[in-house]
Design goal:
Length: about 290
């Protein structure tokens, strides 16, 4: 397998601009001829298709008319155009975020399905603010950065409340549940928060039990993003950087690994039971701490 490039993949081809370009090419139309039909300069269409220039809803409607796109597909693309007028939270509140963090946030917001394997920590989308703060402090994040990072992580969770949230398949190790990050009382609240979130129809939570022994996820966490039309992407996070894998053979390795982990993990119903049981253990320990 080829060595992954430690770089941020181009995101222009993964949003509305990329879809418009694919529509034109799929109909074997030259950009210049489309521009002439619409009374545009060819450079304008080129900038739109490469993500260098924003596009208004009425301009998208005109392009779709030329391409003969109707019905639900037209409505979907016009809705994308509406959303593209609003800056993502990582653009308006992204001070201090790295380029790869911004790309991760964009992929997470645009994905139709997210498969996350976390052997050490509660996935970011499912963290309580206090848990995130405890994590940042434990990882020696500077006090000046904690507030920004916590706000960024909480803002990501807005996708959970969307009308069209992505399908989320979260797989975690039992160790995640047992580590008293921030103390037993906090972990009690965090685990009960997991139970509450797992009731959502778009979210599946599975726990790999300690009794499982060795498994394919012991070499680190990963996040797999699937998109409506674009190739899937895998993200691997390190302490001060992240790597995105886009080659199909690379993505396939992590898809097989996620399937293998799901196979050895507890069912969603049994996972909910173990989360509740360990939450009760943390609660008892928390009471003991208060009495000590």
């Amino acid at each position: 397998m080829s060595v992954a490039k430690q770089s941020v993949p181009s995101v222009a081809g993964r949003g509305l601009s990329g879809e418009l370009r694919q529509l034109r090419r799929g109909r074997r139309l030259k950009g210049a001829s489309v521009a002439v039909q619409l009374g545009w300069q060819p450079s304008k269409l080129s900038r739109i298709e490469t993500g260098q220039q924003g596009v208004r809803v009425e301009e998208v409607a005109a392009l779709l008319a030329v391409y003969g796109v109707v019905g639900e597909e037209r409505e979907r693309l016009l809705a994308m155009a509406e959303r593209s007028r609003d800056k993502g939270w990582w653009e308006t509140h992204g001070t201090g975020l790295t380029a790869w963090s911004r790309t991760f946030n964009l992929f997470e917001a645009e994905a139709t399905r997210v498969v996350s394997w976390q052997p050490l920590l509660v996935p970011g989308l499912l963290q309580l603010p206090e848990y995130t703060i405890a994590l940042m402090k434990g990882c020696d994040v500077g006090a000046a950065e904690v507030e920004t990072r916590v706000a960024a992580r909480l803002a990501r969770q807005a996708i959970l409340a969307r009308d069209d949230p992505p399908e989320l398949h979260m797989i975690i190790d039992e160790t995640v549940l047992r580590r008293p990050l921030g103390g037993h009382q906090l972990m009690t609240r965090q685990l009960r928060h997991l139970i509450e979130l797992s009731e959502r129809p778009n979210l599946s939570l599975q726990v790999v039990p300690l009794a499982c022994g060795g498994h394919t996820g012991l070499d680190g966490g990963s996040v797999l993003f699937d998109f409506h039309r674009h190739p899937s992407v895998v993200h691997l996070e390190h302490k001060i950087s992240g790597v995105f894998l886009e080659e199909p053979d690379q993505v396939a390795v992590f898809r097989r690994a996620a399937d293998a982990l799901a196979a050895v993990a507890l069912s969603p119903a049994d996972s909910k039971d173990i989360v509740a049981r360990i939450a009760a253990e943390h609660e008892r320990e928390g009471v003991s701490d208060d009495d000590a």
